[in-house]
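Progress note, project year one: complex with 6-diazenyl-5-OXO-L-norleucine.
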Amino acid sequence: MDTHEIQLAVDDLYARYVALTDGEVATYIPELGKADPDELGIAIVSADGRTFAAGDRDRPFTIQSISKPFTFGMAVEELGHERVSRHVGVEPSGDAFNAIELQNHTNRPFNPMVNSGAITVTALLHARYGEDTFDYILSRLSAAAGRHLEIDEAVYESERRTGHRNRAIAHLLLNFGMVHDAAEAALDVYFRQCSILVTCRDLATMGATLANMGRHPGTGESVFNLAAVRSMLAIMFTCGMYDYSGEWAYRVGVPAKSGVAGGLMAVVNRQLGIATYSPRLDARGNSRRGIEVCVELASRFGLHTFDCFNEGSAYLSALL
Ligand code: DON
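Model obtained:
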């Protein structure tokens, strides 16, 4: 039995939060409604590759919006911040992830974590990689996870068939010249990237790759350059939890991203990737139990970026 303090904490959090049944499984993509609402997985991977996990850590689920910081990082790497910022801003919107709105004057989406911004980012990648775009995204996400990832075809089909709102957003962006003519093709890539299957352990590893300055802790592969990691973590810190981002920064204080299938990935810079999977969501589309588990982990281990002028971080370093 692993008696490491982090493993004991993860076991304890699992045992207590598995009983929390608040929230609803997302059903607006019909296929997501089939998830088992009771499942809960927690995984933590350190920047040097140690894993602590409990519960449904190996249950596959679709990555959904947690793909967004990664595609943003790819666009920044490919095109540089200057060019990307002509198409998408970096301001929290304070509105729902699927809001149909653009910034006044510039007509840009507020940020790359809301659907309009993420579709724009995928369109930028599509303008560069054409029909290879999805394979490119899949290979980069796979490198971050350290294993070959696959797509859930049923979720992709479900999302494509019912994604009228995203289609409306893509056409609004086309109207304002924020995406190129192949908006429909880019949208298709967006639906596919949201349908990539990951486990909690994968997401924690992907987070650890970011914590480890873009280098996968196990394979040693350099997946993202430093500028991309900085951009990804900054945007996750300010916009990663949608209209809960301010509250999250206040209570948990680390960059994070949630997805409507119930995944949540958080990054403790230079130290940890954290992931939870629990499909019951709150009204904003964030995993209900995921938030509680992260709030408690942050408080137990002093993870908040501004905790006691980082004595918390020293405590964690001593543990690791
Ligand atoms: O665009 C959508 O509706 C989904 N494919 C992704 C949204 C998502 O995960 C938002 N998360 N909270």
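The chain is about 45% helix and 10% strand.
Residues 64-65, 97-98, 115, 159, 166, 194, 258-260, 285 surround 6-diazenyl-5-OXO-L-norleucine (CB under 6 Å).
No further modelling is planned for this target in the current period.
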